[in-house]
Amino acid sequence: MRIVALIQARMDSKRLHGKVLMDLNGMPTIKHIWRRLLKCKELDEVVISWGCTCAKDETVGCMPCIERVTKAFGFMPRVWTGSELNIVSRHLGAAMATRADAVLRITGDCPLVDPTLADEMVRRYRELWPSCDVLTNWYPKAVWPDGLDMDVQSVEVLQRILSIKDFPKEEYLGDMVKCGLFKWNVMPYPSEDLSSFRMTLDTSADHTALSRILKTIGNDSWNWLDVPLDMLQRQKRPDYLSGALEVKSERL
């Protein structure tokens, strides 16, 4: 089974514009994620799934977007450009282009993503497949620090969602959980509820905190347990089973 990591990213974040390319300790946010995922032993490839803002229609192979990412990296990583708002279509295009059977989805505002945790997710998914369509560490309850959330989805899940006319194609995670169409499994939770700690980049305060953390632990410290929790921002995270199941994801 071929599993590819997709870094879900775009420039037009409403709360912190351009955060995926913001400098964190001398390196763009998204490059931190890319370097960390390259440390994974279970992944077959790492691809940036970039939401194109150059045109209203879906744009594949958009050179202005690819050049923007390349300039930030200093070289050309593997980038798939697609519809900014139809995330399902964008991810499916990237998956098909890389001949993936499943994708590990990481949002582009998680610069402290842990490659060991990602490897555990991918390894477990391979063990469970085909009895599992989606493996997550954030459903039904968010327990990990915000910024370590990830899931593995089969390409068939993306294909089926795309084929359903009224299924949301941008913020699709909540409906993917609720629809009853897919077989779910959950990674074991940590013994302590750490969901109030923020390892994600969504505000200027997050940027200040993450910059300070990376200066302290260095850009090549891969284990999330190396992060001093007292340096992190705090928050109250949503219960993913409550009410209408509002998934508070930034629309990357």
Reconstruct the topology from this structure.
Layout: E1 3-9, E2 23-24, E3 27-28, H1 29-38, E4 45-52, H2 63-73, E5 79-83, H3 87-97, E6 102-107, H4 115-128, E7 134-136, E8 151-154, H5 155-163, H6 173-178, E9 184-186, E10 197-198, H7 204-217, E11 233-234
Parallel strand pairs: 1-4, 1-6, 4-5, 7-9
Antiparallel strand pairs: 2-3, 6-8, 7-8, 10-11
- The tally of domains stands at 1
Could you name the CATH topology? Spore Coat Polysaccharide Biosynthesis Protein SpsA, Chain A
Distance between the termini: 27 Å
- Biggest pleated-sheet summary: 7 strands, mixed
* CA-atom Rg in angstroms: 17 Å
Beta percentage is 15-25%
So how many helices? 7
Q: Would you identify the CATH architecture?
A: Alpha-Beta Complex
The CATH C-level class name: Alpha Beta
Uncertain residue segments = 241-252
